[in-house]
Design goal:
With about 325 residues, the protein is α+β, with helices and mostly antiparallel strands. The protein contains 8 helices and 10 strands. It is globular, with a radius of gyration of 22 Å.
Length: about 325
């Protein structure tokens, strides 16, 4: 893109802000994992937890910790808590709400709360990130390495509204484990062909019935809201399916969703794709937060370039 076009886009944003004003919006995002090895960190054996309730707590004017927001993780273990305007959330933290949650398939121990960190702030919009929250089983899985003194996980903070002053807890670094000698558990089913190849397939390929077997992480009838999160639900409704989103055209936001869905599918089907799944979700939600047509179109164009960067390696699925 040349300098003249950059200037025109910048001028468009400035004029739009001057005429229409800025609608402030802030989002806090993070992920919840099952820490199967109880080592206090996310590793290859850990997996995201869906349906987990996450609570956000901030200090009030009286110094008391106050519950300010909650959200439930989607199928990818992601949660997003939104606020009007741009409040300062630098002293806040999040944690899993309840260890007895029936959706907690992992176990009986919750990891520590995690501090909220500012990722970017501009035009009265802000996005904060949080390091992964963890839940742990009562005992580490049999295929995990063992240690004579396994690391202990700090107890989570109890959060009945309101609660007493609480400082975020930071887990101590686990001791370095010896080189494990164990048999790896069975790996999840991989896509039929292009997982290790340079492959990128446009939305037209993903809509064809003969390539349906490549939908391995999500299914066509799943909704955009449960995969992309609350901002997508607000913008596109709660009933729009992933397959229907591939038909979007003639509108910047429909085009963004179509290319983002395609990029998400490609990210799960080729290790050499330009984006990982969390990057697709982050860039998509950032574009929605910006609520700017140039930003939406730029993000959609980047996804489209990635979706056509390599030849599509799909082969007809076996019936």
């Amino acid at each position: 893109m040349n300098k003249g076009l950059y200037f025109l886009l910048f001028l468009f944003v400035i004029v739009n802000v001057d005429i229409n004003g800025v609608q402030g919006d802030t989002m806090v995002t993070g992920t919840v994992f099952c820490d199967q090895c109880k080592d206090g960190q996310v590793s290859i054996f850990d997996y995201p937890l869906s349906g987990m309730r996450v609570t956000m707590v901030c200090p009030g004017s009286d110094g008391q910790m106050t519950r300010v927001g909650e959200d439930t993780t989607n199928m990818l273990g992601n949660y997003g808590i939104t606020f009007d305007g741009t409040p300062d959330l630098s002293t806040c933290f999040t944690q899993i709400s309840n260890v007895q949650d029936p959706n907690n398939k992992c176990g009986a121990v919750l990891g520590p709360p995690k501090s909220v960190k500012l990722m970017f702030s501009m035009f009265d919009m802000a996005m904060y990130g949080v390091d992964p929250l963890i839940s742990q089983p009562a005992q580490p899985m049999s295929y995990c390495s063992t240690s004579s003194s396994p690391p202990t996980t700090p107890s989570p903070v109890t959060l009945p509204p309101p609660v007493g002053p609480v400082a975020p807890v930071t887990p101590s670094a686990p001791p370095k484990a010896p080189t494990p000698s164990f048999k790896l558990p069975p790996l999840p089913r991989m896509p039929p062909a292009p997982f290790l190849e340079s492959s990128a397939c446009s939305y037209q390929y993903w809509m064809k019935a003969e390539y349906k077997c490549y939908w391995v992480a999500v299914q066509p009838d799943m909704t955009v809201a449960e995969v992309f999160g609350p901002l997508a639900a607000q913008k596109y409704g709660t009933d729009l399916t992933l397959y229907a989103s591939l038909e979007g055209r003639n509108d910047p936001y429909k085009t963004l969703l179509r290319e983002a869905t395609t990029a998400l599918l490609n990210s799960w089907n080729s290790l050499r794709f330009a984006y990982f799944a969390p990057q697709v979700l982050h860039n998509f939600n950032a574009a929605l937060m910006a609520d700017s047509t140039p930003t939406v179109l730029r993000t959609a164009l980047r996804f489209k370039r990635a979706n056509t960067a390599f030849p599509c390696q799909f082969k007809t699925c076996k019936k």
